[in-house]
Amino acid sequence: MVILVLNCGSSSIKYQVIDMTDASSKLLAKGLVERIGLADGILTHKPVGKEPFELHQPIPDHTTGIRLVLDALTDASHGVIASLDEVKAVGHRVAHGGEFFPVSCLVDNDVKEKIRSLCQIAPLHNPASLEGINAVEKVLPGVPQVTVFDTSFHQTIPAVNYMFALPYEYYEKYRVRKYGFHGTSHKYVARVGAELAGLDFGHSKIITCHIGNGGSVTAVLNGKSFDTSMGFSPLDGLVMGTRCGQVDASAITFIGEKEGMSYADLDAMMNKRSGVMGLTGISSDMRDIDRAYEEGNERAILARDMYYNRVKKFVGEYAAEMGGVDLIVFTGGVGENSADLREWVCSGLEFMGVKFDSAANKGTRGVNKILSAPDSKVKVAIIATDEELMIATDTYNLVK
Fold this sequence. Notes:
- α1 packs across α3, α10 (about 285-295) packs across α11 (about 300-320) and α11 (about 300-320) packs across α13.
- By secondary structure, this protein is α/β, with parallel strands linked by helices.
- The strands form two sheets. Strands 5-4-3-2-1-6-8-7 form an eight-stranded mixed beta sheet, sandwiched between helices. The chain has a six-stranded mixed beta sheet with strand order 11-10-9-12-14-13, sandwiched between helices.
- The chain is globular, with a radius of gyration of 21 Å.
- It has 14 helices and 14 strands.
- The longest helix has 25 residues, at about 300-320.
């Protein structure tokens, strides 16, 4: 069964075309649409057995990005299928499932409406996922679609960690609580990391750091999510590309009052004009921030240091919360590609039992590798996340 997997992020679309059977999976192509909303958008298409293809042009929104992906898949020279009729199912990563979706499910009107109802608390992701679902309905009418939710893995978080110290009535009325995100990635890299480090996944203390334009850190205790840095929405926790992360709520109400801003204005400011973009005024892309950092731009130096340091804070917090840690995993676009980030976070953690191997940390892109010294009490690893394979597996099992 040929399955197209679409993973729409806040400024990117990762995709894979996978031929699934009961016993195996065969990757046909994969690619990335990135820098969505910026002037210099990029499509990188990598068909198996053929030369890669790149397209550089403005990509204003996710709908445009998905159309470019479908064109690439059926192209005469670098395509992998003769026509879109060969695609028998489409699996989507969806950021927020609230308390509606503890597991993956087939798409119908009710599912779409529930996803739409959660757009207010996932304004950068759920709308993009809906765009993907609606676009596929137009170009592949009748093809079943499956949604796999970032929040499902985090449904095991205990109430002591998912509740906010707000009047309880707001949980009862509106289900205001921590939900957590990137669950598909955290689950995958924790399991693969445990295997690489020789740990018993069901009896382990693992901290997974999914770091990209959006990012989160998760405490995985005995194979289950125990706490995570994102909260009610993907806004909380780390400093991100355009999101502020953890902030004193009174600072937001103060700014709103001074500037005469509406709730919608404040929401847009925190989600779309903050993070490293807001701090630097340069870009939401860490590659641009890295270049400005090397050039000595003071605001870029501040933004990158804050971005890195917030990850370290959560690693320390979750080690304390679990009573120790066996393994720290880095993944995601920045987590997998930035040796500087990994060294920054692990430096100074010797008191916790981390003995980081700087030499092993170099030249690690696209590989699964242990980055700690052989005698390190706490292992450190880089794991290339494969959310798409997990989404394809759920899609195949539901559709077949």
